[in-house]
Amino acid sequence: MTPQPKRHYSVEEYLDLQRSGVLKHEYYRGEIFALTGSSEAHNLILTNIVMSLGTQLRKRACKVYPSDMRLKIPKTGLYTYPDVSIVCGMPQFDDSKQDTLLDPIVVIEILSPSTERYDRGKKFQNYRTVNSLQEYLLVSQDDYHIDHYTNQNNGTWLLKTYSGKDAVLFVKAIDCTMLLDDVYDKVDIADSDEEYPPIVE
Question: Which positions fall inside the Putative restriction endonuclease domain (predicted)?
Answer without folding.
Answer: 11-167
